[in-house]
Amino acid sequence: PVETKAVPITTPAAPSIAKTDPSFEHVVAAGETIYSIAQKYQLTTYQLKNFNKLTSNELTVGQKLIIKGEKPAAVIPVASNNDDEPSESPETLKNPNLKRPAAVYGLNKIEEKGTGVWISDPDLDPNKMLILHRTAPVGTIIQITNPMTNRSTFAKVVGKFTENETTKDVIIVMTKAVADAVGALDKRFFCNLIYGPKDNEK
Fold first, then answer.
1. 126: which of 47, 52, 90, 194 lies 20 to 30 Å off by Cα?
2. Residue 131 covered by a domain
């Protein structure tokens, strides 16, 4: 008998369709910041600014931002043990001021990375853990981390700083005590900041 070999039939592969990254628009609402929007969609502020070619953190109400990724189906409300927590009733939807700010739950912690500098100033006790910051309110406690030494400390904001030759391009000004606590070797050094709202602003 003659052997017949089965020849496999090859079907041409279907052309692969290039998938585009999903994205959607977010319209900036009153009270929103680049930090809060980035956290809402689990992005970094750098990614958000990069997607939208922003050069600063300034946003205007009604501004449209491109958000890369799938649009969340719904915002899950934060569970609370407080019995007096207002629910999403028509009243609170009409008047958002009736709703508690996210700050109550510590959700809007702000993270910053940049250069810090310690200075000798007659108004700042060099032995106390004191800092100056551009935007954080007086009394805010900020956690400062030096990634070079992996050491962290907490210090209290006692005022704002004005930009001069010493403080140019820095995000925080501190006393010698703070710099020593995080093991800073130089006057200017890279640091990470984490802080939230003041307790009395709830």
1. 194
2. yes
Phi, psi of 108 (to 5 degrees): -100, 45
Task: Classify residue 104: in a domain, yes or no.
Answer: no
129-145 pLDDT, tens digit per residue, is 999 999 899 999 999 99
CA pair distance 42, 99, nearest whole angstrom: 22
Q: How many CB atoms lie within 10 A of CB 52?
A: 15
52-63: per-residue pLDDT in tens?
A: 988 888 888 999
CA distance 45 to 67: 11
How many Cβ atoms are within 10 Å of 105's Cβ, its own excluded? 13
What CA dihedral angle connects 70, 73, 78 and 84, to 10 degrees?
150
